[in-house]
Amino acid sequence: MELRQLRYFVRVVEAGSIGRAAMSIGMVTSALSQQISRLEGELSTRLLQRSASGVVPTDAGLAFFRQAQLALRHADDAVQAAQQARLAGHVSVGLPSTTAAILGAPFLQAMNERYPDIRLHLVEALSGHLSDMLNGRLLDLAIVFHTESARRWSVMPLLDEPLFLCAHRDMPGLPSGVTSGATSGATSGGASGGASGGTTQLAAIAHLPLVLPSGRHGLRALVNNAFQQLGQTPRVVAEVDGLSLLMDVVQLGNAATIQPSSATARIAPGQLHMARIEDAHLFRPNLLASLSDDELSPAALAARLVLADVSRTLAREGKWAVVTLHES
User: Fold this and answer.
1) Where is 325: in which H helix or E strand?
2) Is pLDDT of 190 > 90?
3) How far apart are CA 162 and CA 170, in angstroms?
């Protein structure tokens, strides 16, 4: 006797018809009927009373049906226990500071709900440092912005997010479009926090003093390349490799910054003016990189799926402003 025979029998009793049961499980009616007859032969007793309108269990069939349900529940519990035991362990995940601002807490919460036996180690660092740690096998997976230094990585594109000019509302030299619009609430692109300042173009803000991360940061390379395409050089007056400190410097009002939409999650309403930079080529890709699949533990594979799911859910719900959402 096999578990599948028990499942077939239970389904037939629940459906009240061999034909309906066969259709629900994708079998040919005659094949399912043969399986039931074989089961009755093994038990040497009639389990079903057949009629033109369907089937009903005999007394023996009803007793067998109840025990079969119990046996199947035990079997399913055994499978679940094995899966939960398999998905215990330790997973190291790297997040850039800007991405961590919007993704870190929701990801941790989702993992605690779905896989409470998996212990997470979250690392917040510059994207370049995360790449080094991934290559050094110090991380299982990380959000990165480019893959030039990849060594046998598995890479999944998640989303492309727009960039915003963030500045103190009284900073001199801001283009008129930056200071127009509402003074509080969410941006039109769906990013939360700060204050909406409409939109702008990179050329219109090229004269502004900027505080940006250093060259080791993926965002800095992205901004430098965008200015280079305009034939200009960004006017960087300070380099700060920490998001909180960088925003504190911007709050002083002497320099602005350029940040992705995820970074705005840590800007309090009304704290800064933000304007979405609408240059078509200026966006930051978010890539979910991990060690190759054959190097990842089952726990790490589960964490990778949850991280992708949470990222896309935040984008669909308008909590993370994106230019493109990669669904696959």
Assistant:
1) strand 324-325
2) no
3) 24
Tokens 């502004």, residue?
A: 208
Say if strands 273-277 and 154-167 run parallel, antiparallel, or are unpaired.
antiparallel
Q: Which two tokens stand for residue 191?
A: 């990013």
User: How far is C-alpha 152 from the geometric centre of its chain's CA atoms?
Assistant: 21
Q: Note the residue count of the chain.
A: 328
Residue 128 pLDDT > 70: yes
Q: What integer pLDDT is reported at residue 181 of this predicted model?
A: 40
Residue 49 has, within 13 A of its CA and on its CB side, a CA count of 6
Instruction: State pTM to two decimals.
Output: 0.66
Decide if 98 contacts 243 (C-beta within 8 A).
Answer: yes
Q: How far apart are CA 199 and CA 63, in angstroms?
A: 71
> If you search the block for the tokens 């899966």, which residue do you land on?
83
The domains located in the chain, with CATH, are 3-82 (1.10.10.10), 85-159+285-325 (3.40.190.10), 160-177+196-283 (3.40.190.10)
CA distance 289 to 169: 37
Alpha-carbon span 89 to 117, nearest angstrom: 7
Average pLDDT rounded to a whole number, residues 124-128? 84
Q: What confidence category does residue 178 fall into, taking pLDDT thresholds of 50, 70 and 90?
A: low
Spatial contact of 98 and 242, defined as CB atoms under 8 Å apart: no
